[in-house]
């Protein structure tokens, strides 16, 4: 708990444990690469094509006019920012370094053999029941006042948005509209509220290391208009990092490894990372839609070429997570573990 970054009044110097080697923190490219912004209020055929094209091209896109009420988004932002402003003693009861706990507050994480840590605090919340039940609510923090209600008002329509995006992808790829329903998207919905305090030397550290998401689909609300999300982009031939500029009211959408396996590689799980800011705090909210633990994830038959066969082996989500944690979250390692 003493290492919680958000409990310090300020940070004058960057501790050595947060310093990454230069080859692990290449700067973002200055190339002008725009992440597509898709208006979901347009005709469905047009939206379907745009979502699939953006997913194939970059693996990341932003959506606006998505149906999540603005007051729900603003309420979530305000509640989460207020949570991290609480004094340390008010957050202490929720702090845990046990990764098996579905609801907890933690700070940083050891990354790689060198023991470097990254510059963020995280409030992780899980929701397995919709409509949200009392057991779920009471497992969430009760401070600041109203945070449980704010999380529920945000989470329910955000999950619905993710479900609709999955249906659009199905329609675009020629799958049944409910192909991703059931166990493939029926696990806990997990929310990571990532808080990146102002950093005294952001050029020498990272907020999150390069990684690919483990889940099916991710919806990220970038908070406060402060940029920090960067996406790997091979379009220039050098594997550049490009910065995703916040768009007011938008969600950033990206795909996890489960969607890549389930679509036989038609859609990719793309590496991304986060960087802190020298002067401004940043609080973002990532909503992850996951399979159930025993769900067998395998390529859809409709997307498997009869001659080439599947590109990925079938795997339960539980087994996937065991391997994912063992090899690390980098794309190359996970690809090697599950590619046929």
UniProtKB/TrEMBL annotation:
Keywords in alphabetical order, please: Iron, Metal-binding, Oxidoreductase
Keyword Oxidoreductase in record: yes
Question: Could you confirm whether the keyword Oxidoreductase appears in this record?
Answer: yes
One Pfam family assigned to this protein is DIOX_N
What are the recorded GO MF terms, alphabetically? metal ion binding; oxidoreductase activity
Domain Fe2OG dioxygenase, chain residue ranges per copy = 186-291
InterPro entries the UniProt entry points to: DIOX_N, IPNS-like_FE2OG_OXY, IPNS-like_sf, Oxoglu/Fe-dep_dioxygenase_dom, Plant_2OG-oxidoreductases
Lineage top rank: taxon: Eukaryota
Output the PANTHER family linked to this UniProt entry.
OXOGLUTARATE/IRON-DEPENDENT DIOXYGENASE
- Family, per the entry? Belongs to the iron/ascorbate-dependent oxidoreductase family.
Name of the protein: Fe2OG dioxygenase domain-containing protein
Q: Which species does the entry assign this protein to?
A: Eleusine coracana subsp. coracana
The UniProt gene name for this protein comes to: gb12384
